[in-house]
Amino acid sequence: MLAPAGQPMGQPMGQPMMGGGAVMGAAAPAGQLGAPAAFIPAAPSYGPPSEVIPTGYNLAQNGGKCDGSCGGRCGSCCNSGGYDRRLNFYGDFLYLRARDSEVAFAVPIDGPVTPGTPRVEVGPVAVADMDYQPAFRAGLGVNLNDCQRFTMEYTRFESATNEHAITTGPFVLQSLVQHPSVANAGSDFLQASAHYDINNDIIDVAFHQLFDYCQDYQLAWTGGLRYLQHEQTFDANFAGTGTENVATGIDFYGTGVRGGLEFEKYVGCQWILYANGYGSLIPGEFRTSYQQSQSFNSRVVNTTWKGGRLVTTWDLELGVSRVSKCGNYRLSAGYVYSAWTNVVQTDEWIQAVHNNSFIDMSSTMTYDGLVARFEARY
Fold it and tell me: What is the pTM of this model?
């Protein structure tokens, strides 16, 4: 049978040829070296889809070992571990209440003020006490590498309350904030009102260092500076046979050091539990004022005081976060508690003026409430 055109006689149909007319795969003639076989690239081999490693996945962590630059231990793995974004922006809505700061300013008694006569309370004490108030916090974070971060944060808290008290004869209102040495017949009041403010401005600058982390948890220490501006203003007005006004002010300004621990734990690939605790030492100075005036005397009492203090603040925040699938966005909700020690409070300052004793004015003021955060990471 004739071979197709171009096919040498005696060669099997479809058999590839090597140089010199030799058949590929056929034995070379005796005494003649065989020509090298043509190179045929191997076909790529893919494992099952479950074994394909995503782009950018940390192989060391996938093998159950954490990045040695920070140390740590591994558990179940969900995220890449470490600070995995360059920039962080966040804003917090806070709903806080200032506690241990109330001021009792009036109480109804069973008759006009008479020197040497006991006064018997016949109604509830009128107290200027703070309720829950909205506040905000905003911050920026820059990740220097997988284990180090720098943040700046600003917090603004404004709290105010207005209280009123009224009575009718034969009862009268006794002022609890007027100086006791100037009480007279003109101190028989039928109406009283008070306005009370507490305002805080806080700036925190901090460095954060991860020292134990993996794909499902992070533990870091942080250290930095805190600037604190704290203001308390109180104003009470009384009306009856005469009028009276008592106004006080307390200001504190200080800058100190702040440090703490931050922990978060993945529970599932998109839920995080977190707990953050911080402490601050803030040296600064309190400046206070007390003024009392009456309808017939515009300057009954007028005094000021100032003193240095080392104020300590302790902050605790616990909550849960929901993370987007790509890790760029977070929604968080939690509870925040803060205790400030060695502060001068309004009621304490008023009592110091009444007793003419300005020694050892130091109290503890607390704040607590809810926090909600939106965070973007890029």
Answer: 0.76
